[in-house]
Amino acid sequence: MxxxxxxxxxDLAPLTEGRNTDALARDFARxxxxxxxxxxxxxxxxxxxxxxxxxxxxxxHALPMAAKQAIAVNSNHRGYIAINTSTDVxxxxxxxxxxxxxxxxxxxxxxxxxxxxxxxxxxxxxPDLPGFRETCEAYAEAMSSLGHRLMRLALQAIGVDDRxxxxxxxxxxxxxxxxxxxxxxxxAPQDLYGSAPxxxxxxxxxxxxxxxxxLQVMTPSGQWVDAPPMKGAFVVNVGDMxxxxxxxxxxxTPHRVINRSGRERxxxxxxxxxxxxxxxxxxxxTGAPRFDPLIFADFLRSExxxxxxxxxxxxxx
Length: 317
Hints:
Low-confidence stretches: none
Largest sheet: 8 strands, mixed
Shape: globular
Order of helices and strands: EHHEHHEEHHEEEEEEHEEEEHH
Mean pLDDT: 92
Number of helices: 9
Strand order of the largest sheet: 1-2-10-7-12-5-4-3
């Protein structure tokens, strides 16, 4: 991994306009092989959808607590995640003893019913808020389309033509999280985070953030580089599963959120992953395997049971 001081910017116009992407693939390989994070512009997601999801998030978080707790996150990881109920205990990047200082609403794929054979399957829990479900579903559809294009670009960037792994995204695991970070008190201890230092555990994260800031990315030397908001751009980063699939060529980089702005912070990360039954292993053509194969669902289960109260309770039930 290369030491860096700035987050690279990728212009996705060739990808979204159907033009030749060879040069863009080389830029992708450089950005995610050296930094693991990048801004993407000309991504094709309409601005009104982006504005709408933030307005929807603010409306949700302004609801009375009783209304939000009525759809408290369940064992299928859908619903309201209250502040102080998730902790990044699996991180080896910091000694984390305090829960993340954020609250959120989590939407995943909409299934008619829970299938015991498919981890995390099930219907979403929706609040009684006019237009909320429609806005979330429209945004998730647009982000899923972008995520699929970016996965194809990632494979091109590492020189892999593998239709089998792309088919694992025909029915993807998606997560839309509407996050609210209250301002940290001035006297807050140094080990209290909006989101503690961590790596994302999936394939791709596509983040829309408001104008408050607070996201920071760790360099190889342990320094923290700000990733401030950029108008019209998403922050995109690689997670642990794509790192493994690329045999380490694409980097899953540590990051954190600290909101010392004195203002409310809202962000809307969208996580784009393969179906939970997918076996994750270094792809053919990436060299001698550096990672053992694993089943995505098994990895998810261990992560969620370690980090979320709702899953700890379900495990012990």
